[in-house]
Amino acid sequence: MDKKTYSNLVVSSAPHLVTNMDTTRIMLMVLIGLAPSFLVSIYVFGARVITLTLVCIVASMFFEWAWNKLMHKTQTVGDLSAAVTGTLIAFNVPAGLPYWIAIVGCFVAIIVVKQLFGGMGKNIVNPAITARIVLFISFATEMTTWPLPKMAADATSTATPLGVLAEGGAELPSNMQMFLGFIGGSMGEVSAIALLIGGLFLIWKKIISPIIPCCFIGTVFVFALIYYVATGEGDALEMAVFHILAGGVMLGAFFMATDYVTSPLLPMGKVIFGIGCGLITMIIRLWGQYPEGVSFSILIMNCLTPLIENFCQKRLYGGAKKNEK
Amino acid sequence: MSQKHLHSIHVSHYKHTAGCATEVMPVPDVVKISMSQHIGAPCKPLVKKGDYIKVGQLIGDTDAFVSAPIHSSVSGTVTGLEEQRSAAGGMDTLVVIETDKKQEVYEGIKVPEAKDLPEFIKALRESGLVGLGGASFPTHIKFNPKNIDEVHTLIVNAAECEPFITSDHRLMLEDTEDLISGCQLLMKYIGLDEGYIGIEENKMDAIQHIDKVLAAKGITNIKTFKLQARYPKGAERVLLYEITGKTMNAGEIPAQYGVILSNVTTIAFVGQYFRTGMPLVSKRMTVDGDAVNTPKNVIAPLGTQICDVIDFCGGYKEEPRKILMGGPMMGRAIFSDEMPIVKNNNAILAFSKAQSLVKEETACINCGRCHQACPFGLIPTALADAYARRDAQALSDLKVMQCMECGSCSYICPARRPLGFTNKLGKAVVKEAGIK
Question: pLDDT tens across B285-320, in order?
């Protein structure tokens, strides 16, 4: 009797099943979540949105690929995280930005912010946000040359609503215009409704937790409400709605502040993080030099994330016992 | 009753064999009965080469407190003792018996009678019963806790939350009488007031069937309890929380919360033993996996080699690369299909190459899914960091000892990190450092 037996089987630790949701799929979901805003943006600013986004994606993925190649590291370009970063950079700049400046932004994001700090999962701050800030400071003119939205012939000028609010001179667009996105601004942040749809899709798919967006947007709303009630400038409720629709709040709250790597993991930390983002955003908007503060707020809260995380862990477990003898 | 739930995850059920009535496997030519089929001291073989033994005859025992005797599952001639590496990694003594296929029953087999608790416990020990859910802790110790006067509730763990496995499901449909009489025996001798049979809601037919039998018998102090069909509802501490709302910490036993908690197969065996007197010599198990031709539920004699069980299920469809004893979430991968069936086997799963690949680990993206999945709210990423530093104090502060190694974190991790396994290693670091 020659029975065939097998004595060289694979032995590995349990569990022997894993979910099919891996990093690549998560990044793909984020890209899908960004799609509605992308489409609205094409409608508002024209075909240059497509080419600029593609340039950013290709540049980001190239930098990621080239770095891994040069440093003899495992190739991670396939996980699509560079594509997400590229898309977010494109969404954070004016549609008319020269391509070479956008590519500089991608270099800063992928090489300086992400890879120099150790690559995927190790970066301290959000690459896209930091790239936006670097570009904003380095190329102030190009980064604030807002192309005219196609449908705004009667035009609220080429300034962003927040620019108008800070500088005055023109009439603010209506909240409905801002909700739909027919306004001047960075490419991907103009349409609140498109970002909301994408954000809710990510929450529904359990890609992101609703805590950070809710706390972020909620804080901006409440802060604005209190400020305008206290100062009596205009209709407080209308201005509060204006502030959550204007600038980068929606894009930042749903797609940038929720970046796993640079935001806290524990729910309590997410609450602190979201509220912090909202507070800093409003402080910069109302009293700061710049008309917009979302990117700075996220950057600052990114830097505070390890502290928040540590604090929450200690709260959860009662802290390390010192000098236990 | 608690309506709150601990964190859990959805794992595809893959209960292909739920409709497969259990088949009794014919006795194989050779069985190899392990002397270490329980937690505790291994048994010493009581037979030697050339002995003729019968079904139910004692072949291994020891004086150690934490142990359970081992009986022959077949009639035949002992051809020798073998040393073999066990699935857990240690060395194991196997009694090799060439069967004569007559299955003559040992003369000493008689239906046990017990007047009181000590006699009941003694009978349980003689039956060779261990926890059949997987832990294989000797039952005669588990059912006799120090605070036996304080326990009041029986919880039967019939969650069967592991994917693929349907042997408990089939047992509930096929051996309902034994299950209920087992519950009643336990409640009578230990002095328990009420019993709950916790079953996941993906086995509604079992719930309805048991409800019907209970109603027909007019039993009101045993009830079925519907659990969410999520992983890991069948973990002892999770089940206790779901049914009683009490939070049990690692290192504690359910008896401290007034509960005797045991697996459905274990309880049903108690009923069966007090009906037939036959010690634990065979086991119902699910045979499945994409490398098996005909997935089935099988009752096999203990000591049957896995390859023989697979043969009974139509053999291999293709070359197996990974074979599991138990379910895919907590089961153990074995290196050879010549290993024998032991008491706590509830499944044999054989997977092809495509299903056996160990996924490559990528960088943690701090998504927090592991924390959300953990029934006890641990932070596996932080534990993995602490383990990488071999920081025993940090591991202990982050409650690594609470981990029950359910593997939910590893399952859910999008970066494919073996977080559950890292926790296991982390526990060893804490133990070594002697931190309480």
Answer: 999 999 999 999 999 999 999 999 999 999 999 999
The C-alpha atoms of residue B257 and residue A299 are separated, in whole angstroms, by 49
Instruction: State the virtual CA torsion across A227, A232, A238, A241 in degrees, nearest 10.
Output: -10
CA distance A34 to chain B (A): 19
Measured CA to CA in angstroms, residue A74 lies from A71, A77, A272 at distances of: 9, 9, 35
ipTM: 0.88
- What is the CB neighbour count within 10 angstroms for residue B115? 8
Residue of B403, B405, B393, B389 whose CA lies nearest to B430? B393
How far is CA B219 from each of CA B159, B183, B210, B362, rounded to the nearest angstrom?
21, 11, 11, 54
Residue range A12-32: average pLDDT? 92
Model pTM score: 0.90
User: How distant, in Å, are the alpha carbons of B229, B287, B297, B310, B370 from that of B349?
Assistant: 21, 6, 12, 9, 26
What is the pLDDT confidence band of residue A247, given thresholds at 50, 70 and 90? Answer: confident
Residues of A in contact with B307 (CB under 8 A): 3, 5-6
- CB B233, CB B241: distance < 8 Å: no
- Describe the strand order of the beta sheet including B194-200 as a list of residue ranges: B222-227, B194-200, B153-158, B259-263
- pLDDT tens, residue by residue, B322-379: 999 999 999 999 999 899 999 988 999 999 988 887 778 899 999 999 999 999 999 9
pLDDT value, residue B135? 80
Separation of alpha carbons B237 and B36, rounded Å? 26
Under 8 Å between Cβ of B295 and B289: yes
Those of residues 344-403 in B touching chain A at CB distance below 8 A are: 351, 356, 358-359, 362-368, 371, 377, 379, 381-382, 393-394, 397-399
**What digits encode the pLDDT tens for the residues A88-130?**
999 999 999 999 999 999 999 999 999 999 999 999 999 999 9
Chain B from 310 to 339: CB within 8 A of any A CB: 311, 319-324, 328-338
Chain A residues in contact with B411 (beta carbon < 8 A): 15, 17-19
Closest partner residue to A23 (CB to CB) among B319, B411, B414 is B414
d(CA B55, CA B112): 17
Confidence at residue A323, expressed as pLDDT on a 0 to 100 scale: 42
- The bridge status of strand B153-158 relative to strand B91-99 is unpaired
Give the three-state DSSP class for B96.
strand
**Chain center to CA of B49:** 31
What is the least distance, in Å, from the CA of B410 to any CA of chain A? 7
CB contact under 8 Å between A119 and B363, yes or no, is: yes
DSSP B297: E
- The residue ranges of chain B whose pLDDT is under 70 are 1-3, 436
**What would the two tokens of residue A111 be?**
């090489």
**Which residue matches tokens 């500088």?**
A167
- Number of Cβ pairs < 8 A linking chain A and chain B: 141
